[in-house]
Amino acid sequence: MMNASDSFVDWVLETIPTMGAGWCPPGQIGIGIGGTAEKSLLLAKESLMEEIDIHELKERGPQTDTEKLRVELYDKINALGIGAQGLGGLTTVLDVKIKEWPCHAAGKPVAMIPNCSATRHAHFTLDGSGPSFLEQPNLDDWPKVDWAPDAAARRVDLDNLTQEEVCSWKHGDRLLLNGAMLTGRDAAHKRIQDMLAKGEELPVDFRGRAIYYVGPVDPIMGEVVGPAGPTTATRMDKFTDMMLGLGLLVMIGKAERGQGATQVIAEHKVAYLMAVGGAAYLVARAIKESKVVGFEDLGMEAIYEFRVKDMPVTVAVDAAGNNVHQLAPMVWKERIAKEGLLEKA
């Protein structure tokens, strides 16, 4: 709830960096202004159902105050340099949507919702004329996406991982993981914590291993595993010291780590690697074998062992505590301002 005299633009630009990379930028930003607090949230969500049209809007020029605000926010948010996956770059948002509602002049309810670019939805109208059927889309209408490992990326053998090798990685390095890794999310970490408190033996040995923060979807039609995209790593921050004390060398997840976890990573001289958020199906194609090795009753939150081939990741926090999510956007923000990169793009 803002005062009528508060700067809405300043609030947005202050808030966007605090959202981190957990929303998988680049994506859309939905904003609701006015009504009540509840109404503004509804407006923000409704705005995200509209078509992406910021480029057409910029080409013809804004004609209303709301359109001017959309363009201003679009340009200023991208100038922050947060970039794709929070790793720095020119594109943080693909569009900014705004919906408004009347409200009392003494107060200004505002809501902002980030939306992953992977969100898909269909538009339809119920007119009472009977059932309607959506035709299956023609996949030929989309570009062919073929991925091959980058020759500049460094292959890592997880089956023979050493702390010396982990310490040689630098923030921003691109790696291709090969071999066996463990998985674990919130429920598994909490159970490990409870078992350690009771002095109980854990079902797996974490020494020298890598853990992937994921809850894989059940496989269908001969798949090894269903979509297996990373979950937001920040939720595991409170368990980091405990897990590294068990001998873990590598953690893999989505988005940035909190400052406390970054310090713990540096103290243990290990690394946090970031997998690509919003691409769960494509990530799963790197998984060649999958089996449950602990906490089977937790379903998708069980501990699995994956065997992967050329799974692409980026070193987000290296063993020295250098955090690419903090450093890269600062570099890009300065470059954008000095070199006018957005104007050239």
Main β-sheet: number of strands, strand sense, barrel status?
A: 5 strands, mixed, barrel
The name of the CATH architecture of the largest domain is Alpha-Beta Barrel
CATH class of the largest domain: Alpha Beta
Spatial ordering of strands, largest sheet: 7-8-9-10-12
- Average pLDDT, to the nearest integer? 93
Unreliable residue runs: none
Radius of gyration over all CA atoms, rounded: 22 Å
Short overview:
This protein has 345 residues and is α/β, with parallel strands linked by helices. The chain contains eleven helices and twelve strands.
How would you characterize the overall build of this protein?
- The protein has helices at 8-15, 37-47, 54-60, 65-78, 163-168, 186-198, 240-245, 259-268, 280-284, 324-339, 341-344, and strands at residues 2-3, 27-34, 93-101, 107-108, 110-116, 154-157, 174-183, 210-212, 250-253, 271-274, 287-294, 303-317.
- By secondary structure, it is α/β, with parallel strands linked by helices.
- It has two domains: 2-120, no CATH class; 154-328, fumarase (Alpha-Beta Barrel).
- The protein has a five-stranded mixed β-barrel with strand order 7-8-9-10-12. A three-stranded mixed β-sheet has the order 3-2-5.
- α8 (259-268) links the parallel β9 (250-253) and β10 (271-274).
